[in-house]
Amino acid sequence: MKPNIPRAVRWPSVVALLLAAAAAAASLYVSAMVFERMPHVEDEFANLWQAEVMARGRLWIESPREPASFVVPFVVDHDGRRFGKYPPGWPALLALGAAADAPYLVNAGLAALAVWLTFRLGARLAGTIAGLLAALLLATSPMILMLSGSMMSHVWTVVLTLAWMLAWFDLFPEGGGPARQPARLLVSVAGLSLGVMALTRPLTALGVALPFAPAALVSLIRGGVARRHVIGIGVLAAAVAGLLLVWQWAVTGNALLNPYTLWWPYDRIGFGPGIGPLPEGHTLKQAILNTHHSLFAWQHDLFGWPYLSWILIPVGLMALRKRRDAWVSAAILPSLVLVHLAYWVGSWLLGPRYFVEAVPALAAVSAAGVTRLAGSLRSSGAVRLRPLAVVALMAALVTLDVGVYVPVRVGGLHGLYGITREKMAPLENTDLAEALVIVHAEPNWTAYGTLLMLTAPFRRDGALLLALSRDPVQDGRLEQAYPGRIVYHYYTGDPTRLYPTPKP
Which of 106, 162, 153, 155 is nearest to 134 (CA)? Predict the structure, then answer.
């Protein structure tokens, strides 16, 4: 006997699943055609390097002889150990893809999951139609497309943010009443999501949690079952987040030593001298300038409507003005902006990625604004023109995004920093298994970074020993450290030849 499921219940879920599948396909397309399934920025190199090491069951590997010549961006050497500087939450997940020799699949799957959960969030806040529109807005967001096509960690924290929000809202439903799901399950999901987020991007976890702090404090004061739930979430999140100290102890030998500072001693959070690369340190003026640049990119990259990606948010907040969960969700954006003032780096190259965890909530609120503008789809007479006009407007905006903005903004990232697979060909097609190749990169490290994908651990059969030329003295020490290897000098500006000695 077939289950008696009303059609009205089934079709939105089917559409949401189709949107999720489309998001995964778009992510794979961007990964293959724009980024060529290669890292392009330092963060990607370090995270993929660490993931490949973890896929082999290791947290670190022994530093090579003359480690200064074997540079991998944001991979550090400390007390004879080599490891990535980033927290382990993202490399550990990326290692699942690395083990299958397909790390690019991880973010594609996360993009699909993020779209599905955004549908759930939008439907919760403003109804099924709003949920579907929110899923569409997320699936076509240039920010999500850029990051899900890369090997950055941010789509993972987007999924964790959604899991955290939905679990919290189910555990403490609007207007009170019993939870929709078993309380222990919701406490576990909320605590684990926040804890793993802290194990991935600690500052982001703080920004996501802050808007929920007032409600948590009220529950602690009032006591009862709500207090037990909040304590359970806090204990579980703290236990998982505490693994960050275990990680730092495992790789550095000191639980309180932040690996970020092993690459740049000034790479810390806060203000004042010694924080950030400026002589005066990180200042509030610099923080505001960074935020200005990030938010300037945000108004375009959010939904791909130049200067106007935010335009439906005020309408949506007005429509949801009586819903506490909607305001808490929307507050994630200003909270992330606030906490990231304390970090000396801005974000706009791959979109304002420090704020991307707010995109699902903003998509849901914007979708609520659309349904508010459209009015009732059951209207009759002249009023019926309003929903048709709103539908036409949204179709035009999404078409502008997908047809114009995304090809220019996302497609324009192809060959970022000059890194392409084509530049690997000269060395890839040469048998250099017994050689030491010293690369003279011109004009900067990225020309060398392109070639790193030919080496271990990025390539499992990578017998090629590739080093970056630092100076004649260091290069001489390097040659002496590997006496059994034939030495070649490779010039990225002259990729057709290998030289037995350095060019004059």
Answer: 162
The stretches of 401-468 forming alpha helices (DSSP H) are 406-409, 425-428, 445-451
Q: At what angle do helices 7-29 and 104-126 cross, to 10 degrees?
A: 150
Per-residue pLDDT tens for 331-383? Answer: 999 999 999 999 999 999 999 999 999 999 999 999 999 999 988 544 444 45
Tokens standing for 185? 């399950």
d(CA 291, CA 270): 15
List beta partners, residue 400: none
List, for residues 418-443, the tens digit of each pLDDT value. Answer: 999 999 988 888 888 888 999 998 76
Q: How many CB atoms lie within 10 A of CB 416?
A: 17
Task: Measure the CA–CA gap between 423 and 45, rounded to whole angstroms.
Answer: 17
Distance CA 61, CA 66 (A): 14
pTM of the model: 0.94
Q: Please, which residues have CB within 8 angstroms of residue 502's CB and are 6 or more apart in sequence?
A: 440, 469, 472, 475, 489
Which residues, at least 6 apart from 47, have a Cβ–Cβ distance to it below 8 Å?
39, 84, 86, 90, 91, 94, 151, 152, 153
Residue 388 and residue 379 in contact, taking contact as beta carbons nearer than 8 Å: no
Q: How many Cα atoms sit within 13 Å of 278 on the Cβ side?
A: 14
Lowest average pLDDT, out of 163-167, 387-391, 454-458, goes to: 387-391
Sign of CA dihedral 223, 226, 230, 235: positive
Look at residue 443 and give its three-state secondary structure.
coil
- Which residues have a Cβ under 8 Å from the Cβ of 407 and sit 6 or more positions away? none
| Secondary structure (DSSP) of 225-254 | HHHHHHHHHHHHHHHHHTHHHHHHHHHHS-
Cα–Cα distance, 158 to 92 (Å, whole number): 17
Q: What pLDDT digit, counting tens, does each position of 1-55 carry?
A: 344 444 544 889 999 999 999 999 999 999 999 999 999 999 999 999 999 999 9
**Rounded alpha-carbon distances, angstroms, from residue 440 to 373, 427, 444, 472, 491:** 60, 14, 9, 11, 5
Distance of CA 421 to the CA centre of its chain: 23
State the burial class of residue 2 (Cβ atoms within 10 Å of its Cβ: 0-12, 13-18, 19+): exposed
The one-letter amino acid code at 366 reads: S
